[in-house]
């Protein structure tokens, strides 16, 4: 099963190792670890793919950077962005309650003047269900996994077209899936660990992106 090999590239430490205790195999249902990601100056479209402690709020995930950093989440309901920025002079996040959960995506504008190293630490969400609604929104794989959209089990419509937008170096690359012909053009897109993307679902129907990662025998 493909899912049994998903986490090899995520630098994760698996706690679900079988141990012998009174002749009975005992398994942990938790997988915890970390993801290192370095953001260049300017905009990056990123994902948090681990559930942090105590929460997935921006102050927990991004800490206290050495310069100005802005996190912008697309709001599909308004068509605008919800914004939280770090003010290093006054040492506060403008919206300390903004949350970036696994499965979501956000732009991070690194205005510190130098590369910004991030370390996401937390627990893998083994079971998830994301609603891919009609229209445009930002998404990411809940499970930290690099590969093609087929590898991360992104659902595809039975009819119509969906377009995936990857952001890099200040510009977008577009990849369209045509259900009638059953292929991606110009090619099947791939994503990296901690990378988010935009998806424009113009198929006319919502889709469910379900992931289930089994732990144990």
Short structural summary:
With 217 residues, the protein is mostly beta strands. Helix content is 2%, strand content 46%. The chain has a domain at 127-212.
Structure report:
There is one protein chain. By secondary structure, this protein is an all-beta fold. The chain has a domain at 127-212. Helices cover 2% and strands 46% of the residues. The chain has one helix at 58-62; strands at residues 12-14, 19-21, 24-26, 31-39, 42-46, 68-75, 80-87, 92-93, 106-111, 116-123, 127-132, 135-139, 147-148, 161-168, 171-178, 183-185, 190-191, 197-201, 207-212. The strands form six sheets. A five-stranded antiparallel beta sheet has the order 5-9-6-7-8, with no helix packed on it. The protein has a five-stranded antiparallel beta sheet with strand order 12-18-14-15-16, with no helix packed on it. A hairpin with a 2-residue loop joins strand 14 and strand 15 (171-178). The protein is globular. Mean pLDDT is 88; it is low at 1-27.
Morphology:
globular
Determine Rg (CA atoms, Å): 18 Å
**What is the mean pLDDT?**
88
Q: Largest sheet, if any?
A: 5 strands, antiparallel
Order of helices and strands: EEEEEHEEEEEEEEEEEEEE
Low-confidence stretches: 1-27
- The residue fraction in helices comes out at under 10%
Distance between the termini: 13 Å
